Amino acid sequence: MRGTPDVPDVVLVDDDDLYREVLSGDLIDRGFSVLCFADGPSLLEALRDGLEAKIALLDWDMPEMSGFELLGAMIEEGITLPVIFLTGHSLSERDLHALDHGTVDFVDKVHGTDALAHRVQVIIDG
After folding, report:
1. Would residue 3 count as lying in a domain?
2. Keywords of this protein's UniProt record, alphabetized (predicted)?
3. 5 found inside a domain
């Protein structure tokens, strides 16, 4: 694995259990270490407790706290983890809004894991 047990390559936040399971499995098969969360508040709490990672993949649409709201909370708390938004409803307005507020990329879920894994690796490699 690329990451160490203490610092995963990727934290994945998505409220869709099946998508989260499939995507994390695909990323693990590609050599990434992945830690999953079902909602934004859970990740935020873990980050407050000292969790570190190389990149965060955040679902844009989640019921309790959207990915965008989660990014805002992370920024307010000084958490500088690179973020890629995942969505099934890609709109150019969302892309620009997210990029203007600190995210490093925006990926439509229909593009599949290959494109996402490549983007994740590019960001991790700096």
Report:
1. no
2. Phosphoprotein, Two-component regulatory system
3. no
Q: Which residues pair with 55 in a beta bridge?
A: 10
**pTM to 2 decimal places:** 0.84
The pLDDT tens digits along the chain (126 residues) read 444 556 789 999 999 999 999 999 999 999 999 999 999 999 999 999 999 999 999 998 898 899 989 999 999 999 989 999 888 765 666 666 666 666 667 677 777 888 889 889 988 887
For the domain that residue 14 is a member of, what is the CATH number? 3.40.50.2300
Q: Do 101 and 72 touch, CB atoms closer than 8 A?
A: yes
Is 98 part of any domain? yes
d(CA 79, CA 47): 8
* Cα distance between residue 103 and residue 58, in whole Å: 10
